[in-house]
């Protein structure tokens, strides 16, 4: 079913919501934790069920029709994802188990093979651990073999922005790559990769964590100047178990099989199979295809407008609540609103909201620094203004009782 438009360009969350079995079954629940994972639309649920109940085979492993048909379906999903993310070519899209697996594939498929003594990687220490930890681990591995790679931190401003000046100060003649989040998972602040790209020497690679941007706003990786990008399927309506690693064509010659075996690793293996060792998770990949169909049916511009409006609504409401210290300011527009209430533990706020069937993330974010314990409301296409208001009413009450 195509969601109806309530007004020109505005989507009707109730119609969209009806496509989500879990939300339809629990109408009292305000699910405000979509930045952790999204609920799944009917098309995605059906895609997984079909993949498991219809003729299963191993994709890319057999010459009989069940296997060849499944292989062709997977390649159709690859094309759809390439178009959705603005990749120049289908073979720039590698299927992985998620964004974490994709970032590790960059570290091991590119970094382990190509970094030399004295090379530098510029990164943001307050990014998600999936964006940071693979590089810390790689540095430690390489140091055991006498190769010293330096990780150079870039600090964001107080409001969470990554400035051109801060980036320029971190980059040197030894910088090989800059790694950063497109949208930060707690502040919700969006970086401007195309502008930052222009500051970099063309030889420096740009690696984007798009876990919180893909499926939320239009992402055109070629236009953003990304060389690598990682995407999380389960945060854009697909089943857990699938993610995407985008590798710009100019990187392909430098990439090695990071998980050799099961169809990957032989010299001369072509992309993307070179980075897809082992049996692909066909149900999850097919669910990603259904997720892209769903997003296309709503329209990514409408998704962005809807989540931006809800984000601003929540920020405006919470900004006037005494005792609430907003982490996401006026820049936040990506569906994420985070805050602290000094004097009340985030976990206690989470419990209090949960008792009223308002589900948020209360601390325990996978990153370093004070943001790690923020309370985060995160909305998506199925979230209604009434749900945001309900959460804000409750939070006002909680803050007043502090
Ligand atoms: C910004 C960011 N990057 C990466 C990840 C990891 O994604 P995945 O669960 O697909 O490995 C997350 C998940 O919370 C995230 O928020």
**The CATH C-level class name of the largest domain:** Alpha Beta
Domains, number: 2
Instruction: Write down the overall geometry.
Output: globular
* Portion in helices: 25-40%
Secondary-structure element pattern, one letter each: EEHHEHHEHEHEHEHEHEEHHEEHEEEH
Provide structural commentary.
This protein has 402 residues and is an alpha/beta fold. It folds into 2 domains: 5-36 and 300-400, Aspartate Aminotransferase, domain 1, CATH 3.90.1150.10; 48-295, 3-Layer(aba) Sandwich (Aspartate Aminotransferase, domain 2). It has 13 helices and 15 strands. It has helices spanning 13-17, 21-25, 42-53, 65-85, 99-114, 129-143, 164-170, 193-199, 221-224, 282-298, 300-319, 346-355, 385-400, and strands spanning 5-7, 10-11, 30-31, 93-96, 120-123, 150-153, 175-181, 205-209, 228-232, 243-247, 325-326, 336-340, 358-359, 361-362, 375-378. A 7-stranded mixed β-sheet has the order 4-10-9-8-7-5-6, with helices on both faces. Strand 5, helix 6 (129-143) and strand 6 form a beta-alpha-beta unit. Helix 4 (65-85) crosses helix 10 (282-298). The longest helix has 21 residues, at 65-85. The protein is globular. Pyridoxal-5'-phosphate is lined by residues 98-100, 128, 130-131, 181, 185, 209, 211-212, 232, 243.
């Amino acid at each position: 079913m195509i969601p109806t438009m309530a007004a020109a360009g505005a989507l009707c969350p109730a119609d969209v919501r009806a496509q989500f079995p879990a939300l339809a079954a629990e109408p009292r629940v305000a699910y405000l934790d979509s930045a952790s994972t999204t609920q799944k639309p009917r098309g995605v649920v059906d895609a997984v069920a079909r993949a498991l109940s219809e003729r299963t085979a191993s994709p890319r492993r057999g010459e009989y029709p069940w296997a060849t048909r499944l292989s062709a379906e997977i390649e159709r999903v690859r094309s759809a994802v390439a178009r959705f993310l603005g990749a120049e070519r289908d073979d720039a899209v590698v299927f992985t188990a998620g964004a974490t697996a994709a970032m590790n594939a960059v570290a091991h498929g590119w970094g382990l093979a190509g970094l030399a003594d004295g090379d530098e990687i510029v990164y943001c220490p307050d990014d998600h651990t999936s964006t940071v930890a693979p590089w810390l681990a790689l540095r430690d591995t390489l140091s055991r073999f006498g190769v010293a790679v330096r990780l150079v931190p870039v600090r964001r401003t107080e409001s969470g922005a990554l400035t051109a000046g801060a980036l320029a100060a971190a980059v040197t003649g030894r910088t090989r790559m800059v790694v950063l989040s497109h949208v930060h998972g707690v502040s919700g602040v969006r970086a401007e990769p195309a502008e930052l790209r222009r500051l970099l020497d063309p030889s420096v690679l740009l690696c984007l964590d798009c876990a919180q941007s893909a499926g939320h706003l239009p992402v055109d990786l070629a236009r953003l100047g990304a060389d690598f990008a990682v995407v999380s399927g389960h945060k854009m309506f697909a089943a857990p178990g699938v993610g995407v690693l985008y590798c710009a064509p100019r990187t392909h010659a430098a990439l090695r099989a990071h998980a050799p075996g099961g169809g990957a690793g032989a010299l001369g293996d072509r992309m993307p199979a070179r980075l897809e060792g082992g049996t692909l998770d066909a149900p999850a990949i097919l669910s990603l295809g259904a997720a892209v169909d769903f997003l296309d049916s709503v329209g990514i511009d409408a998704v962005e407008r809807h989540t931006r409006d809800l984000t601003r609504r929540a920020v405006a409401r919470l900004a006037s609540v005494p005792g609430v210290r907003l982490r996401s300011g006026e820049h936040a527009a990506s569906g994420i609103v985070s805050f602290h209430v000094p004097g009340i533990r985030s976990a206690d706020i989470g419990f209090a909201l949960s008792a009223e069937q308002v589900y948020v993330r209360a601390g325990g974010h996978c990153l370093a620094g004070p943001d790690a314990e923020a309370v985060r409301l995160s909305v998506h296409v199925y979230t209604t203004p009434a749900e945001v208001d309900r959460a804000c009413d409750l939070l006002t009450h909680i803050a007043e009782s502090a």
